[in-house]
Amino acid sequence: MNMIIDLLKSLISLSLGDFIRRNFGTGPGTELLIDIGGVVILSTFCLLIVIFLIWLTRKLVARMQDRIGPNRVGGRYGLLQTVADVVKLLSKELIHPSGADWLSYNAAPILTVMAALLVWAVMPFAPGVIGVDLNIGVFYIMAISSISVVVLLLAGWGSNNKYALLGAFRAVAQMVSYEVPMMLALLVPVILARTMSTKGIIDAQNLPFILFAPVSALIFYISTLAETGRTPFDLLEAESEIVAGFHIEYGGMKFGMFFLAEFVNTLFWSGMFVTLYLGGYRIFGLENWVGGDGYPYGRLIGLIAFFAKTFFMYFVYDWIRGTLPRVRVDQILNFNWKFMVPLSLVLIFFVALVDKFIPDTAGTVTRMAIHLTLNLVIAAATLEFLRRRGRQFRQEMSGGDGPGGRETLYPDDHGHGAAHEAPAHSDHGDMPLGGREPIAVPLH
Amino acid sequence: MQADWQYIAVFVALSPIFPLAPVVLNRLLGPHRPNPIKQQTYECGVETVGDTWIQFKVQYYIYALVFVVFDIEAVFLFPIAAAYGQLDLFAIIATVLFIFLLADGLIYAWSRGVLEWV
């Protein structure tokens, strides 16, 4: 009886490992058992939460687009819609396209889910509730998450389809590019926390790092959008251009695995953003509360705090998905290499320099204030630089005209004599496109 | 330390089961009547012309090349960042030089027109 109460309390306080150690002794066998149990629980959780995530995304995006979304299967909120989809996928025939490379075609869906699951090993859910607190946690995440790039190429190459191959190339170019600013942005929390361990980074956040490094947080978030291939960077599966991208030849559950990996990854990066910049499971010390009977009940509070923050970040992903259109492939790469990478290099340079000159005796708030000021200065300088460059580009493209470029809009307008007498530098900038009589500007 | 990596090893060993299970289940539950027409390559509109595995746009390769330079160099920055509190002035100057080298690689690639999508 005591043992059952012990078990229940351990379950509630998320300390099942301690329960097993108390009752079955501490040996290598027990540790192995705990490890296997932890892996099974973590992976099952990741796979099952996707069923909820897909429903959530469909419902949220539908609402943003003024639709209702799933509302038939499983009550008026369509809660069982995804379950029905899974059953449908399970009953589909698995087609093996002729000429496909058997090994890479079949290995890709398995490997993509493996990579999506393995990164969760270092995700801290609550104090003590973490797969394993590796001392190179952040590094491990970067290493494992880049496997998915290779997997996409395997899928595209193995399918023996030109659209799939094209989609895979696009995906690889994009994901490989955005890994650079992501890594450089990740360096900032590592410098601030002086550790690569995910738990260590959370422990160092007496104030959330988003207050120290908002620019780094923004770069990281945009990079994760591209890494997971979400809108506006979802051109690796642009239906209107390359049919469906790398997974065009996949059907049934093999397709389902790619879909699953995408959602698991999105939730993972939301959780990682929370861990790195929003203090993870920390909620005013409540997460460390230990009950009178010695069970760490605060872990449950920490877990709830972690998931509340994570699902908020996930909501922001869907919000962006419902808001922004898809960008072009050259824009996506230019934006990365000519804006994000230089910006993150400048950022890491100044953060490293400034952090060295803050004396160790300075309090957390002083340190935060200095870093925040630095970030705001960099952000303001970047915006001003962008504004000037943007104006310059617009003028180059339109021949001295305002935004919109009258020359490109009305290329045949040169001959109208009366229009030439219009004042040379009147303000045409805010004229709506069309509607009014076009005014030809003297171009020479 | 070893116990840490034991977890990773267990995870790597067990993780193929989770994606394999639904795929195998699908194979068992779904019909399986392949025929040559069904297995044709899926394309819109017209039949596939020629082989898929042909030479592709060199631009993708160049981006990957620039990435490799950055990736390897950024890897060295992580240990520096983790041990940042213990670095003396000389190490800081070396790090700053290193970041300049990173930036220089980007500037070189940029000026050579590598970053233009053609």
Please explain how this structure is put together:
The complex is a heterodimer of chains A (444) and B (118). Chain A is mainly α. Chain A contains 18 helices and two strands. Chain A has a two-stranded antiparallel ribbon with strand order 1-2. In chain A, strand 1 (124-126) and strand 2 form a beta hairpin. In chain A, helix 8 (162-193) packs antiparallel against helix 11 (214-227) and helix 15 runs antiparallel to helix 16 (364-398). The radius of gyration of chain A is 26 Å and the shape is globular. Chain B is mostly helical and 118 residues long. Chain B has helices spanning 2-14, 17-29, 58-82, 89-111. The chains are: A mainly alpha (444), B mainly alpha (118). Chains A and B meet through helix 3, helix 5, helix 8, helix 13 and helix 15 of A and helix 1, helix 2, helix 3 and helix 4 of B.
What can be said about this structure in brief?
The complex is a heterodimer of chains A (444) and B (118). Chain A is an all-alpha fold and 444 residues long. Chain A has 18 helices and 2 strands.
